[in-house]
Structure formats: structure tokens, C-alpha cells
Design brief:
binds iron/sulfur cluster; alpha/beta; 7 helices; five-stranded parallel β-sheet; single chain; two-stranded antiparallel ribbon; Rossmann fold; 173 residues
Length: 173
């Protein structure tokens, strides 16, 4: 069945999403160095706000979730709840070695090893911690995914690539 043409208001919302993504940051157990790199992005040297990228406190206003650190068992359900509060289409950036595999904390008794064990990750920012330019590159990659998804009528077309979402309580047991 052919997709109905988008209304003017929908096109306006999509245009604003691409031009000015809003980000929310969740520290799921980081050593705080990743968070300081995000703060560096907001400072005058990098100043990501000049590109329309805003950091917002409420996940309900966000398009992109940046998760810093490995995920402690206590934070897993909270991370999942924050992710659920973000409206679609939403994208997740896992910061640094911790986000990908828990980095130096891998295998410790109190953590889940990967952010992807709790929420689906779209982009990984490499480093320990990732530099501000790496963070900006991750945000731009999310925007490219967003543009692709908008052109294909939503995120569903690449859902098979993101894998199955596993519930935190099933992981910790
Ligand atoms: S990736 Fe490195 S800098 Fe970031 S939270 Fe983990 S240990 Fe800290």
C-alpha cells in the first residue's frame, strides 16, 4: 500500500528534528570523564549549540539519548525507563569503551557489561573518554540515520539490524 503524503505540519516537525536535535544524557555508572567531554562540547571551544544541538534534561523532549559509562545493576531499570520516555523516532549513543563492553570494568559483579543489554544502541562513540569531535560525529551519524528513517517511513525497516531488546531483569539474574 502506498504511503500517504506527509502533511505540512509533519514535514515541519521532521525538518526541525533534523536541523535541531535535542539530546538527553544519562550517566549509568560512568567515571564522569565521559560526562566532562560532553560538557566540553557545550563550552565555547566546540559550542555544539551553534549547530542547533541542544542538551535537555527531560527525556520527553529529547531525540537522542547519550549513555555514559557501563550499566550498573541498579541503574539498568532506570536507564530503560528513561529510554521508554523518549518519543519515537529516538536514537541512542553509547559513549566510550564502557558503553561498548564496560571497558576497564568488564566482568565486575555489580554491572551489566553493555549498554545494548538494556536499550538498543544506534551509534558507538569510540574512546575512553571519546573526544568532543567524536561525540559530535556520533550525533551527526544519528542525524543521518534519522534522515534515512524519515525517507523510509520510520525505523521499522532496519529493526532487524538493531537486534532484540533484552529486559534488564532477565540479564541480571
Ligand atoms: S569510557 Fe572511559 S572515560 Fe568513559 S566512563 Fe568508561 S572509563 Fe570513564
Amino acid at each position: 500500500m502506498a504511503t500517504p503524503p506527509e502533511s505540512f505540519s509533519q514535514r515541519l516537525v521532521n525538518w526541525a528534528r533534523v536541523k535541531s536535535p535535542w539530546i538527553t544524557v544519562f550517566n549509568s555508572g560512568a567515571c564522569n570523564a565521559c560526562d566532562i567531554e560532553i560538557i566540553a562540547c557545550l563550552m565555547p571551544r566546540f559550542d555544539i549549540e551553534r549547530f542547533g544541538i541542544l542538551v535537555k534534561a527531560s527525556p520527553r523532549h529529547a531525540d537522542i539519548l547519550i549513555v555514559t559509562g557501563h550499566v550498573t545493576l541498579k541503574q539498568a531499570s532506570r536507564l530503560r525507563r528513561v529510554w521508554e520516555q523518549i518519543p519515537e523516532p529516538k536514537y541512542v549513543i553509547a559513549m566510550g569503551a564502557c558503553g561498548a563492553s564496560a571497558g576497564a570494568f568488564h566482568g565486575l559483579y555489580h554491572i551489566m557489561n553493555r549498554v545494548e543489554d538494556v536499550v538498543p544502541v544506534d551509534v558507538y562513540a569510540a574512546g575512553c573518554p571519546p573526544r568532543p569531535d567524536e561525540i559530535m560525529n556520533a550525533v551527526l551519524t544519528c542525524l543521518n540515520l534519522l534522515k534515512e528513517d524519515l525517507a523510509n517511513g520510520g525505523k521499522e525497516w532496519r529493526q532487524n539490524k538493531t537486534g532484540t531488546i533484552m529486559e534488564p531483569d532477565k540479564q541480571s539474574g
